[in-house]
Design brief:
This protein is an all-alpha fold and about 290 residues long. The chain is built from 13 helices and 2 strands; from the N terminus they run E-H-H-H-H-H-E-H-H-H-H-H-H-H-H. About 65% of the residues lie in helices and about 0% in strands.
């Protein structure tokens, strides 16, 4: 399965997985450097492990740093950048359906890895053996570098996600200032006619994205396209067929909600997002993420 990583996603994956004044650049860069170091160490061990078992594997860790962009600043809570992003892409859920010809800028794709070409040349049986051994080698490397015990990539990211949730709950959901700002944002949204059931800071910042993602999932369930068993096994779903006309209709609604959300949450995002990004990086570093 091919996947691509945008800068916002890379902050979670590389510093380890979807805003206040941007935090100082130096600490953020330092965290990325440490994550990159761990990722390269893991990849080196994986390469040696695969070679020992008779498999060809090229140690490869994707690029972890990117020039500062509007998306970068938006992820970290810059109001002007967030307003620009949301006016253009909403919460980014229906944007792809409304503008199917627009390609999202990505830092890297799994196809960039030299190992993708190696795996494409294998027979089905060879590929199964290769992937089984690669999983074992990755688990061994992650344990050696980070001390974490993971079964495979899914388990690794599931553990990361669960750890992030616990840290966010512990450090941010109990922060009096964030709780106060979240309450003010929720009251503002209620005044605009929106109902937000969960006002904890760690869930409030994605309530709009989750609402529209829920619409896509509902459309997918009613789609006639057959379900991909491998995707379902990983908690994913086959993207529904949505016409450009319908995509634009949903997207128009999404942009309005996204801008209303930002208008109500300007102060909240300015206080929440940099801390959220730091926690994402910190946990990712614990798990040595950043390699593929």
């Amino acid at each position: 399965m091919t996947y691509a990583v945008t800068f916002a996603a890379a902050l979670a994956l590389v510093a380890g997985c979807a805003a206040e004044p941007a935090p100082p650049a130096a600490p953020r860069a330092a965290s990325s450097t440490k994550a990159s170091d761990n990722a390269h160490r893991i990849q080196s061990i994986v390469g040696d492990c695969m070679k020992e078992k008779g498999f060809r594997y090229v140690p490869w860790a994707p690029r972890v740093k990117a020039p500062e962009t509007a998306s970068d600043r938006a992820y970290l809570g810059d109001y002007a950048a967030m307003k620009q992003e949301r006016a253009k892409k909403g919460f980014t859920v229906f944007y792809r359906y409304a503008h199917p010809d627009q390609k999202e800028e990505v830092l890297w794709s799994s196809e960039d890895s030299p190992n993708s070409a190696i795996m494409r040349d294998l027979s089905r049986a060879q590929l199964a053996a290769y992937e089984k051994q690669l999983t074992a080698c990755k688990s061994r490397a992650i344990k050696e570098v980070t001390g974490k015990v993971v079964k495979d990539d899914d388990d690794r990211f599931a553990q990361m996600d669960e750890t992030v949730k616990k840290v966010l709950d512990r450090e941010l959901n109990g922060d009096p200032k964030l709780v106060e700002l979240a309450a003010a944002m929720s009251a503002c949204l209620k005044g605009k006619g929106y109902s937000v059931a969960d006002t904890r800071p760690s869930t409030l910042h994605t309530w709009g994205w989750r609402m529209f993602e829920g619409k896509v999932k509902a459309l997918a369930k009613n789609d006639d396209r057959p379900e991909d068993e491998e995707m379902a096994e990983h908690g994913q779903y086959t993207m529904p067929m949505i016409s450009v006309e319908d995509g634009r209709r949903y997207f128009s609604q999404e942009v309005k909600v996204a801008l209303d959300d930002l208008a109500c949450g300007k102060d909240f995002y300015a206080a929440y997002s940099p801390r959220n990004a730091e926690i994402q990086q910190r946990v990712a570093l614990e798990f040595g993420s950043g390699g593929s």
